[in-house]
Amino acid sequence: MAKIRPFKGLRPPRELVTEVASRPYDVLNSSEARKEAEGNPRSLYHIIKPEIDFEPGTDEHDPRVYDKARENFDMFQQQGWLKQDSEPVYYLYAQTMDGRTQYGFVVAANVDDYMEGRIKKHELTRADKEEDRMKHVRVNDANVEPVFFAFPDNDVLEEIITSVSEGEPEYDFVAPDGFGHHFWVIDSPQQIATITEQFAAMPSLYIADGHHRTAAAALVGNEKAKSNPDHTGEEEYNYFLAVAFPASHLKIIDYNRVVKDLNGLTPQQFLEALAENFTVTDKGEKIYHPDGLHNFSLYLDGRWYSLTAKEGRYDDTDPIGVLDVTVSSNLILHDILGIKNLRTDKRIDFVGGIRGLEELKRRVDSGEMAMALALYPVTMKQLMDIADSGNIMPPKTTWFEPKLRSGLVIHKLSD
Questions:
Q1: Is the preceding peptide bond at 402 cis, omega within 30 degrees of 0?
Q2: For the whole model, what pTM was predicted?
Q3: pLDDT confidence of 317, banded at 50, 70, 90?
């Protein structure tokens, strides 16, 4: 069963939240973070991207950078830019994008639930990225940034969402990217108890986004447990910071592909090769979006094409085989274009759907890429089915937007 609990969040005063809050560490590079934090000493980038406080070009993995993170973290607390709540509570965090709002509970998730597989993943992680985040958690003795979970829809929790969100939010602002962020403190003992009970009845939670952060947070907690001879399982380090959303609130955005060359084929030869496994329809110069599962959008030589996989070219009984990322990887990228490893092949790049299909067109028209392939988005049901089956999704399958804003609340590992 999924074990969560409330916690004493460390967070900015209401009047400072827009100065402190930032995008997640992994969606921008050091120079972009330096620019966004310019003139703002309260920006969380000074903690999560502390290389911005050194000379440009400083390695973000330099030991001095991690030490600077802790120095800045301590300074934020001393200055009162981050203050800890006096009692353990939950929080409700909502995000608004394109007129649609999704609501998630900010909770302390359990380390053992991750280590024992009750918090389920759908992606592989890289040891070097895990170690980087583990160092950050260790040096700060805190989960500075949350991870992004989904859970099966729950009517009781939906009622709490409705009730809490009718009250005045603690934070309510629109970030520079145009996304709205709304945040409430849930301090009712009855609601706290109900939330804990409802999550305890769930067999699993699902990582939607932030697999490396989840692994790092859990592994540090596990390290602390093993090194503490008086370990009880109730220490704060047994938990880590997560925002958990009902699955129906979330929308996965397409994650598309662009390829530098046609593996020696002419555009006409490429289209003829595609026709073996797909019904190919010329859609002209107007942007074409995939209209359903197993339908793809191809941009090639100034024109858009609809590609519909023929019957028998995919396996609807296999949670991995049914995915369009698998169909396209096998039948197009591998068999025709000779791209055998999506993780390492330099001929392919990936474009999050938040950028729109116009970005695919631009990169091909510029001559940088030879073709672009747009995929129909994966559904939350597919993601959860794959996680339940113990399988791993192919690389670059899911793109969640909006991203969680960092700095709204932090979880300290020593209460």
A1: yes
A2: 0.90
A3: confident
